[in-house]
Amino acid sequence: MTRQAGLEPLIWIYTRTTRLMFKQFSVVGLRTIANYMVWRIIQNRARNLNQTFQDIIGEYNKVMYGQNSQEARWKSCMGYTILQLGQAVGSLYVRQAFDEAAKGTALDMIHGIRDAFAQILLEEEWMDESTRKKAKEKSDYMQEWIGYADNILDQENLNDLYSDVEVNSTEYFRNVLGNLHRWGTGDLGLLRLPYNKNGWSDPPTTVNAAYSFLLNNIQFPAGIFQPPFYQKDQPRSMNYGGIGVVIGHEITHGFDDQGSRYDKDGNLRNWWDTSILENFHNKSQCIVDQYGNFQVPDVGLTVNGLNTLGENIADNGGLKQSFRAYRKWVAEVGHEEPLLPGVNFTHNQLFFLNFAQVWCDKEKPEALISLINTDPHSPAQFRVIGTLQNSKDFAETFQCRPGTFMNPAKKCSVW
């Protein structure tokens, strides 16, 4: 937080990025900065223009990301509609496609995984009791939002929410500019107002999950409750390996390199003892070094262990918590689930297999280079490899010999 005489205090979050940006500004000059700003406007709005511009974007994406085909018109239109009218589209989606039973299942899993995290807190020898108590308080204060906000099923509420939307059936680009103006004025209107603690980060159709530093809550939109993350009729082992790991991942974000800077009420405040914070940084450095040594095939680059630290901490913590919660669920039920016919895997193995399946993908070299340079997540294959290398449960389940690639002697763990 910074304060200047006569000015209101400001919270400066992205300090490193901002410093680098201003350093670059001092080198390139005002003309280049102005040209860059105009370019960014063109780059973002060209997608809303005619086919000539779509073709130019296609060539750009081919060079930058290795994309050889343009996105289908229906898909881009759907994406834009969700972006602008996310709650209205989400209302239609949850009415027609969301299984309400998933809410109850997810809530049971969340409670079990939160209990697992609380148990892990008790086991961490690098923490003192004072810091452990504060971490437990933050974990206990954490709220969970599942599926969607109830008010999106209220038609009158939706009408009020979009009452200022104007649509012209013959002037698409004018509609785009109008939407930009609406978004901009809406955001500026929130300046100096109390933070809205009831707002979701994403619309219900989103296939993702989130942790909010400011709200200290975990959010799971309706869209993520589908394979491979979740399926009502598949074994619990696979659901814990899918959505369960995601739940643990989001919980852990409250205690990663960024989330650990916020207290239980979402305030940017240091609640760590100095020596314990040093222990945290030392354990985090192990993960930085581990992932920083991963060589990415085909592009001659390594994973940026520092930029991906928060996500890697969350991946490792989420897997550990979810597996514990699954084994506790089995113990409470009193027996293992029936084996899947025709599949020669135990349910412990299915847990890890579904975790890996979630991140199974194939990226082109151009896309990988962009991802490594800009994405806070590690490339998908290393989200799997790095996390499983650190998992004693994985090594025991698949009987990996000590000292092998997937069961190294040195394992990294924060939570």
Automatic annotation (TrEMBL):
The keyword RNA-binding does not apply. Residues 208-414 form the Peptidase M13 C-terminal domain. InterPro entries: MetalloPept_cat_dom_sf, Peptidase_M13, Peptidase_M13_C, Peptidase_M13_N. SUPFAM superfamilies: Metalloproteases ('zincins'), catalytic domain (SSF55486). Its cofactor is Zn(2+). One of its GO terms (molecular function) is metalloendopeptidase activity. Keywords: Hydrolase, Metal-binding, Metalloprotease, Protease, Zinc. It holds the Pfam family Peptidase_M13_N. One of its GO terms (biological process) is protein processing. Residues 30-148 form the Peptidase M13 N-terminal domain. It comes from the Eukaryota. GO terms for cellular component: plasma membrane. CDD domains: M13. This is Neprilysin. It comes from Dreissena polymorpha (Zebra mussel).
